[in-house]
Amino acid sequence: MSSAKLDISLERELTALAKEGREKSEERVIQGYIPPKGTKGPRYKLLGSDNEFLRLNSNSYLSLSNHPKLIEAADEATQKFGVGPGAVRFIDGTFIHHKRLEKRIADFLGKPAAKIFNSAYTANCGLALSISDKRTHWIGDQLNHNSIIRAMRISNIPKENKGIFKHNDMADLERCLAEVGPEIERVVVIFDGIFSMRGDHAPIDRIIEICTRYDDRFTDGVITVVDDSHGMGAYGDTGRGTQDFCGAVPDIIVGTFGKAFGVNGGFIAGSRVLVESIRQKADTYIYTNPLSVADCAAAVTALDICDSDEGLALLHHLKERTAQFRQGLDSLGLESIPGPHPVVPLMVRDTDRTHTLVRYLYDHGVLVVGLTFPVVPKGDETIRFQINAAHTRSDIDWVIELLEKFK
């Protein structure tokens, strides 16, 4: 037997993706890191290029990945326990570092308990598998992340037990709740905290207020869930994310250590009963090896930094650089979606011009993400800029100057 016939069929599918404009470009390979020096933030070397690149496409909002304390914590844990757990958590693959991280993130968010996963993607899927049955109804924002969409699809509920409300449209959310049938016992309303391509946030306070009005209609109530992967650590006065910014806390919080905290892995935080249910029922937790002790030790250290004066200073600097960049776009008359989050979309609204600008920035040593048709509708073509705490005032000024010259 061989895969020759399968390869022919898959090649046709890949060709179709290319014709539709949905083919992924070749992945660039980072081969070097240049630490901050003088007025410049860190730069990166890519395989096949002699340039030094400023990353404006990184989720590492607090720029903690190269922090010496995180590296030291990861190294110390690895030297003691090795580079891998050697088993799933139910078969003696649970180390003290896993338990410490779960307690630390629960305390950070003010929740009774938490469970860590390999990613926020697997956390969302594990949550859906753990809290859904045939009498569960899920409602989500139309711009939710792919991991939430996938979680709703695998949640083992009838397809009619799903509702989608228009992006951040509270009247449409209420419509979805009002249309839930009397046979339903449990409603889950799930949404991103920060919408990663737009930088805008869910109005959590208003969502909770609306859901509370419908809670008594259902035996198990209306449960609010936020995936705040892009908000956690980078948003709000204390870095607690979108709940911090909005002043309202959902029932369940999903997040990642792989963005502002600079490490790897995901988590779910909520009640102790919820977390035990996840431990018992989430396939994406039960049947896979956990994070390494290095990841866990580094993540705990990142949380400690976020809760320190240093962390608040990093957050303040991030806010300043974000405001500087947004003000620079405004001064050039360029269109964006307003908001204080470090995801800053530049609305180009033309596919060819978006490709040209992405290439222009690359040629001048700046890495960004361009979103063009058919990935986004015609007229919504965007370049996503992401500011982080390692960017300097000089870095931001330089990029604004490049954009001014491109105009």
Provide a descriptive summary of the structure in words.
It contains 14 helices and 14 strands. It has 407 residues and is an alpha/beta fold. The protein has two domains: 129 residues, Aspartate Aminotransferase, domain 1 (Alpha-Beta Complex); 239 residues, Aspartate Aminotransferase, domain 2, CATH 3.40.640.10. The strands form three sheets. A seven-stranded mixed β-sheet has the order 4-10-9-8-7-5-6, with helices on both faces. Strands 1-2-3-12 form a four-stranded mixed β-sheet. The longest helix is centred in the C-terminal third of the chain and has 23 residues.
The secondary structure category is: alpha/beta
- Quick one: CATH superfamily of the largest domain? Type I PLP-dependent aspartate aminotransferase-like (Major domain)
Compute the number of helices. 14
What's the level 1 CATH class of the largest domain? Answer: Alpha Beta
| Biggest β-sheet description | 7 strands, mixed
Choose one word for the global shape: globular
Q: List segments where confidence is low: pLDDT < 50 over at least 5 consecutive residues.
A: none
* H/E topology pattern: HEEEHHEHEHEHEHEHEEHHHHEHEEEH
- Indicate how many domains the architecture comprises: 2
End-to-end CA span = 57 Å
Within the largest sheet, what's the order of strands? 4-10-9-8-7-5-6
- Percentage of residues in strands: 15-25%
Report mean pLDDT, rounded to a whole number. 96
So, CATH architecture of the largest domain? 3-Layer(aba) Sandwich
Helical fraction = 40-55%
Rg calculated over all Cα atoms = 22 Å
